[in-house]
């Protein structure tokens, strides 16, 4: 495992505040979620609104009790117990409900200023479990199905509290317990050595469960838990399970504690040892790791965990088995980006995100061939965010499919009434291209807009197509119904060869190559010339992005490229400006199985 720095495709810096929320929104959200749980698991002679109102009353009391000074866990435990009892149907219900309450309290912005919040929450859970114990001993019926009466109260309290604070599969502390341990470790840490937090995410764990089943996956997680504990057995360390395939390690450093790279090597070695869980398949795994080394002792546990999480994300983006040290400057940028992404759905609703169009021209004579639809966001603080920046924000938040659907629908509706034959091009992201509903979406949009299929050009990412699967199937079906398809991100001969059996109408040269514009005698140019020739022989048109000068246009014209996009041909513009431009697309291939050459 090696430390690496991911390619920085960051957004332009801007001071982005977290989305403003009305006071008490966290309480309202928790109350609504709990009301849904109640309605789904039990019969109450109340409407959902009435249940929600009652839940909000209880949640308000719970929050106020946690904030109270001096703190006494008993009032909060009483309210928490009432929430749990309303849908308690078995032993697991207590543990799950306690975890939900604990996480909800720890994740509320309103409570982040509460001193020793994690310890308060654990105290509340412990008191709550003790209340159940005493109720059972007294013969109370509302939790009589959970545990038989007559158990020792102290033993029962310890058992229930342990269930609330530990992962049931591995026996490791859970996130709630780990957070409390972090808070205590920060207070008692040696100021000269401090602590180190490692957050790990197993690489490709979903592939293991998909190929071998959940039962084997659970056994692998148990093995990983043991391996991590063994890897830090010589240190004063706590290992916890933070999520499905995510683990945390807290090391309270001493002068003898190994350096971070050495600790990473230990953990890597522990995880890479194959284990034969079914007697047949030797399984091993690797992990991506985010490391926060010697944080400020005054840091909040929520901020510390957030820094580790952000660092882990950057490590994962660099590939499997990578690790990174936290960088405060990058953490700040990532938090701003996350806040910006969180406000994106609202911007889509209010019209801040708009559709623009940029020309695609025929290099032979500069006439307009098509327009490409792009999104942009006129943000109050950050200014205008480009199409690429909007996609960067939307992809990790899960908004990318909604954004892509909206872009396609909006653009098709605007162009369906045009009298000329100007084509509309829309580039798909990897997620969009692999969406199982893509064909259905395109059919619905074409039907509702009235746009003819042969006027729509959809761009597919080359790397996604090379893997086959849903992406290749989508391209094939869309070509069969008359939609024109191109593949973007090309730059090597092999990229053309894998398209031999796909009904592709055109390719777009990788923008990185266009930006470099290699010298005509370079190896890159010779390979690219071969690629263009092969594409033409297969009946495909070739386009290139990033053409900003006449010199570049001449370069690509001489290279045999058919169409170009870039600053030289105009910036992103409105539909009305786009429609006034002269339009032609030359002899664009029209067959879907074996397009004829028009070069």
TrEMBL record:
Residues 589-599 have a biased composition (Low complexity). Residues 193-328 form the GGDEF domain. Signal peptide: none annotated. It comes from the Bacteria. InterPro entries: Biofilm_reg_signaling, EAL_dom, EAL_sf, GGDEF_dom, Nucleotide_cyclase, Rev_trsase/Diguanyl_cyclase. Residues 337-586 form the EAL domain. Residues 576-599 are annotated as: Disordered. CDD domains: EAL, GGDEF. Pfam families: EAL, GGDEF. NCBIfam families: GGDEF (TIGR00254). This is Signal transduction protein.
